[in-house]
Automatic annotation (TrEMBL):
One of its GO terms (molecular function) is sigma factor activity. Belongs to the sigma-70 factor family. ECF subfamily. Keywords: Sigma factor, Transcription, Transcription regulation. GO terms for biological process: DNA-templated transcription initiation. Residues 12-77 form the RNA polymerase sigma-70 region domain. The gene is rpoE_3. It holds the Pfam family DUF6596. NCBIfam families: sigma70-ECF. Residues 184-284 form the DUF6596 domain. This is RNA polymerase subunit sigma-24. It comes from Terrabacter aerolatus. InterPro entries: DUF6596 (IPR046531), RNA_pol_sigma-70_dom (IPR014284), RNA_pol_sigma70_r2 (IPR007627), RNA_pol_sigma70_r4_t2 (IPR013249), RNA_pol_sigma_r2 (IPR013325), RNA_pol_sigma_r3/r4-like (IPR013324), WH-like_DNA-bd_sf (IPR036388). Signal peptide: none annotated.
Length: 421
């Protein structure tokens, strides 16, 4: 079977994080590990279409990356450094990471270990999340900048500074101790959620989503919840991911066009994921220690409780967002609350709530505004807002949907944000 660039891209998305994790553990150098893995994928792009996919693509990538790293060390390092690095790299086994005995510690998974390493308290929150998205998810600097609503140059500087801080401070890539985990949990949760968000709706590209990235985030969230079962926010994040992921089968139509939440065929939602997510929400409620991820999961639980969009308990959604605002008073939360208010008090009230929100570079803001304007009969303004939102997104499926709305400003419920699906 002919290997295509799409096949290699799927391997990259699935295996980049593991390969980088293994090489960082062996090398102790993030830049060298990342460069070696990138080199290995460049070789794959050249060879695989001609020679075919190897039996173990992940093992091939790790082995090739190891050889590239050894070559670079031989060219650039001192004799002593070359010898030390060669010993470490020769131990790398693509099948299980290394031949060294397993380190004692609570975190066994290489990729989750990488997340905890990047979430070292010596780094700023922005640097922690950006670096992990780069190393674990293989996201480009542009994709990470899009997620943070900052210029690409700003994000590039953050990543460079984070790597430099790890190198100069001598932050080790090792199994975090039990006492290290709580201090890093908040950052780890943020990282996993942003990885999942990129998987649920890709910041760029032809496809609406990246299912493999979402699946990896869910896998790591499950491990985190198992590792820290007494942390309700870890359970809340897993519930949020599961309830969101449950909608994936209904998010697009037969030709791949976006279907918003109010218009989805709810019989196509994954009933098992809905049941598991709702059970986790109930566990969180019994603990009575609400946090941001638990509240967002509860909002999604309300949506999945409804048999159709008209049956949604919007008063409960508003109450949950009111509580969320006390914990996380951000403009994005205010935007989502305004959507729910529109269902209770009408579009005029909700439109007033958008005044003063600093979200002019955020496509969902313009989508919500367009929907509200459309409901109020202000069609020309709505059409301009739809078109502006389309220009702000690099996701082809979203942009196509938004341009269609600009061409025919039809009726319809918001069901979350205007891009919620």
């Amino acid at each position: 079977m002919r290997v295509t660039s799409a096949d290699i891209a799927r391997v990259f998305r699935a295996e980049h994080g593991r390969a980088v994790s293994v090489l960082i553990r062996a090398l102790g150098d993030i830049d060298l590990a990342e460069d070696a893995v990138q080199d290995a994928f460049a070789v794959a792009v050249e060879r695989w279409p001609r020679e075919g996919m190897p039996p173990s693509p992940a093992g091939w990538i790790i082995t090739t990356a190891r050889r590239r790293a050894i070559d670079r060390l031989r060219r650039e390092s001192t004799r002593e450094a070359r010898q030390a690095a060669a010993v470490a790299l020769q131990a790398v086994d693509p099948g299980r990471g290394t031949h060294e005995p397993d380190e004692e510690g609570p975190v066994k998974d290489e990729r989750l270990r990488l997340v905890f390493t990047c979430c070292h308290p010596a780094l700023s929150r922005e640097a922690q999340v950006a670096l992990t998205l780069r190393l674990l998810g293989g996201l480009t600097t542009a994709e990470i900048a899009h997620a943070y609503l900052v210029p690409e140059s700003t994000m590039a500087q953050r990543i460079v500074r984070a790597k430099s801080k790890i190198r100069t401070a001598g932050i080790p890539y090792r199994v975090p101790r039990d006492e290290d985990l709580p201090a890093r949990l908040s950052s780890v949760l943020a990282v996993l959620y942003l990885v999942f968000t990129e998987g649920h709706t890709a910041s760029a590209g032809d496809g609406l989503d990246r299912p493999d990235l979402a699946a990896e985030a869910i896998r790591l969230a499950r491990q985190l919840a198992e590792l820290m079962p007494d942390e309700p926010e870890a359970l809340g994040l897993l519930a949020l991911m599961l309830l969101t992921e449950a909608r994936r089968p209904a998010r697009t139509d037969a030709v791949g066009d976006l279907v918003l939440l109010p218009d989805q065929d709810r019989s196509r939602w994954d009933a098992d994921l809905v049941a598991e997510g709702q059970a986790l929400v109930r566990r969180c409620l019994r603990r009575n220690a609400p946090g941001p991820y638990q509240l967002q999961a509860a909002v999604n639980a309300v949506h999945t409780d409804a048999t159709d969009a008209a049956d949604t308990d919007w008063s409960q959604v508003v109450a949950l967002y009111d509580h969320l605002l006390l914990l996380r008073p951000t403009d994005v939360v205010r935007l989502n609350r305004a959507v729910a208010v529109a269902e209770l008090d009408g579009p005029h009230v909700a439109l007033g709530l958008l005044d003063g929100l600093d979200l002019t570079a955020y496509a969902p803001f313009h989508v919500v505004r367009a929907e509200l304007l459309d409901r109020l009969g202000r069609r020309d303004e709505a059409r301009a807002a739809w078109a502006h939102a389309a220009r702000l997104t690099d996701n082809a499926a979203q942009a196509r949907h938004l341009r269609a709305r600009a061409d025919a400003t039809g009726d319809g419920g918001l069901g979350g944000t205007g891009l919620r699906s």
